[in-house]
Amino acid sequence: MRLRTLVASAILLPALCAALFAPLLATLVGYDAGAVDLMQRYAPPSLAHPLGTDELGRDVAMRLAFGARVSLTVGIAAALAAASIGTAVGLVSGYAGGRVDAVLMRMTDAVLSLPVLPVLIVLAAVDPAKLGLPDADAAGLWRIVAIVAAFGWPKVARLVRAATLALRARDFVRAAEALGASPARIVLAHILPNCAAPILVATALAVGGTILFESVLSFLGLGIQPPLPSWGNMLTGAQETIWQAPWLALWPGLAILLTVAAINLAADDLQERLDPRR
Known about the structure:
The protein is mostly helical. Helices cover 70% and strands 0% of the residues. α3 runs parallel beside α7, α10 runs parallel beside α11 and α11 (231-238) packs antiparallel against α12 (247-274).
């Protein structure tokens, strides 16, 4: 196993386990991530609280674990949604060609030309209650997923379109056309499996980028709202106490840094493994 794979696994597996088993872990250690204990405010790291406590006496380790559930869910769900939309657009555009290709690519160029972060900030600042939408924690989480996915698909669409254009001229695709296979069958059975490599790599890279976007929005107070913890809003709560309790900013910042770096390492390794020229 390669060194990059080992490093990425050593970082991502604990984060995934913490996200999956956070409720069980809280039950075992007897700490609720949302339990307030004002007598334990800003407690430094200790045996009782390995990563210390925050401004409300909540255990930071438990909040990191539950924050991993939110941040990783947003990252993975938004990346998969963006990859699905981009794959569909790229396949249709590359195989159909002509006016369909021109219209879809101009639409893709229009989305790519938008300044993504300012647009995300504006859309995230819209109050769902004024639109008649629920403003619950889950609704806020999936709203971030929808916003990121709506602007994250063009890169995947361009990659898939380029691969489809190359595959459309291959002999096995022409043979399928000569045998009378339908366009849908050709695209799904012959072209899509051969586009899997760029799609997987782009999706893996998008997970890390989405975690950063969620962290930025939550840090600005426009993402996941307390009391639901995420790594981004944990940083928001720590910015005013950076000198009094620096560990409150250290742990979520380190979690974001290591997780995104590990995902990028895994994506680079995946790209090399799936490269047909190697």
